[in-house]
Amino acid sequence: MIKWDGHSHTKFCKHGNPDELERYLDRAVELGFERYSVTEHPPLPEGLIDDPKLMAELAMGFEEMPAYFGYVREYKNKYEGRLDVAIGLEFDYLHENFAFTERIAEPWADVLEDCVVSVHYLPGRGGMRCIDYKPDDFQVHLLNYYGTMEKVVNEYFDHVELAIETAVRLPGRKRIGHLELIEKFRQALPPVNEGLIHERLERVLPLLVKSGVGVDVNTAGLRVPTCGKAYVPEWFIRKCTEAGVECVYGSDSHKPDHVGFGWDYFERAVQG
């Protein structure tokens, strides 16, 4: 098994860290990683969220894309022979707006090696809402809108299933991002029926098998106080592995000391 971190961010992340990519990559080399995918947040449709301050923190602008790709390509060349630096993006699933996603991907199709597709936004009170912003925001704009956590969870997984269809149409290696992100604030919100989560993940598995889309085994939830667990459960990782679905560890690093976080969880799960 190649030691690979398939989900990471850079100084181009508006809610990340200003450190240069070199610090992340040196840490990856130190920990024995062989491949490191840089998957920054690409642009979002203007006004997707009705909070201008939050919008400014979510993703880079179109004008930054050439600089981002040039930046990662520079480090890809610099680390050749030491670390396979893969150029990628973490696309948002944009409901009924694949045309915007195509607008981002098409000019860079020849260089994109990794595409992570994630569900960060759901329809809610006042329009589209960010599911992983703050517990209070989730309560007001999503839970109060849908009425129960079960309804929010079902809406989320409906979008995950559609995101898999989106991922198929993108270049390079495709993975669905942090499958249980909907549980980021699970210790600060009403409890979710774990049986429902299990049932919805079971429904996702055949879609992954059929599409060839892989899974971002995202460990960031382990470092989130209101979550305390990885965003992909061990039982699901084992089922994916048995079914031939590619599972790739993802630190979701937003600063250098996140690199490698939770690798032991991933390694234990894939080795059974």
TrEMBL record:
Is 4Fe-4S set as a keyword in this record?
A: no
Give, as one word, the top-level EC class: hydrolase
Spell out the reaction equation it catalyses: L-histidinol phosphate + H2O = L-histidinol + phosphate
GO BP terms: namely: L-histidine biosynthetic process
Query: What protein name applies here?
Result: Histidinol-phosphatase
Q: Name one GO molecular function term.
A: histidinol-phosphatase activity
Similarity field: Belongs to the PHP hydrolase family. HisK subfamily.
Identify the Pfam families for this entry: PHP (PF02811)
Q: In which pathway does it act?
A: Amino-acid biosynthesis; L-histidine biosynthesis; L-histidine from 5-phospho-alpha-D-ribose 1-diphosphate: step 8/9
In short, the EC number is 3.1.3.15
Which Gene3D superfamilies did the record assign?
Metal-dependent hydrolases (3.20.20.140)
Per the UniProt record, the source organism is Paenibacillus oceani
Per the record's keyword annotation, is Hydrolase included, yes or no? yes
> Which keywords, in A-to-Z order, does the entry hold?
Amino-acid biosynthesis, Histidine biosynthesis, Hydrolase
Q: Which GO terms describe its cellular component?
A: cytoplasm
